[in-house]
Amino acid sequence: MSVSTGSYSPSRISDVYGLMVLDSRGTPTIKAYVETVSGVRGWGIAPSGASKGEHEAVEVRDGGKKWLGKGVERALSNLEDIAAHMIGLDARDQAYIDHLLISLDGTPNKSRLGGNTTTALSIAVARAASYSLGLEPYEYLGGNRANLIPTPLMNIINGGVHAGNDLDIQEFMIIPVEADSIKEALRKAVEVYWTLKKLLVEKYGKNSINVGDEGGFAPPLTSTREALDLLVEAISRAGYDPGTDFYLGLDAAASQFKDSDKYRIDGKVLDADQLVEFYLGLLDEYPVKYLEDPFAEDDWHHFVELTKRVSTKTLVTGDDLYVTNTKFLEKGIKLAATNAVLVKINQVGTLTETLEFVDMATRNCLRAIISHRSGDTEDPFIADLAVALGTGLIKTGAPARGERTAKYNRLLEIEFILAGQARYAGRTPFPR
Ligand code: PGA
Ligand code: ZN
Question: Which residues contact 96 (CB under 8 A, 6 or more apart)?
Fold first, then answer.
């Protein structure tokens, strides 16, 4: 790896600093700025998860009474220490800078500097480089052929740890596959979202339309089938065909409802073999084409079993299973544990490691879905990343709440900039 040389580079870093901002749950997080000698200012904000994988990069937080322990003063002081090492480097040397962060941290999980600190800095470096070159981040990272607008997996019923209801499955998603553009896909999806709202009021009263952390409704339901039935009804009532215009998706986040060696779901206690059959039943009855974290993150064997049985029909995705880390993905590839991976920059803590993870996944024919976190912010960087990498799929919540619409609005903007060059991924990322 080499540092760019030459007399004047517009992307040479002149200043690095950060401040505390709030995420969508009111939790403090880090916003980093990277300025270059050409006078541009890159920035990045770290998001934060609730249903975290055990092996994720660690967020450094203050503890103590203030902010109920969630303050980020320590992380900000780490950022100041790192800044001294970054000034004078070239922001285009993303890999060099990210490896510098990794070595300054010196732990396997960013627990010294904080994955929150390194994530914000790493994104800010990429933006600083792209702005210095007069490029949009998606163009800088993806080259001038990047034109695939991802199909969104839109979580419009929230459960699990993202909602105050009794749904065990965390996310119930609609996937607008029949559209020519993200603009058309969002129109159809919003029509379904509004129709679902009406339907909920009719069936369960107005207390059922409060929303969860990712902007989906959080109605007082208790079973997976009730929620899937509502999605199917909302799609039909909005004038669309479930299975043709829209696929459905689930993120079970099953680590959250595993209890010793059993799974507690829909009022029943199932062993993992029974849970396999439970999912197979759902795939028979509903057009579910996406199934994320169907088992707890240590239950590799059942991932393998389910993927073997459904991989020609459905994407089986590892989120907590892999935590955007090539070390775990290597194991998944060897075992054929899934046919898709979720990608979250802050699970691993730098953009370079994230790019390596996506590269390993796609080289091994696994779909990669670029994802937000349940605690997110107005930073739309993942929209640029999804277009840059051309993976064709993004997961960024309901078409509601500013931190979610920030990503959709950025996709609309990218589609607008690309004009006739943009292509909407539609159903192409899914097995037929
Ligand atoms: P998290 O959940 O951001 O709360 O971890 C999102 C997901 O599980 O995909
Ligand atoms: Zn997940």
Answer: 1, 2, 3, 89
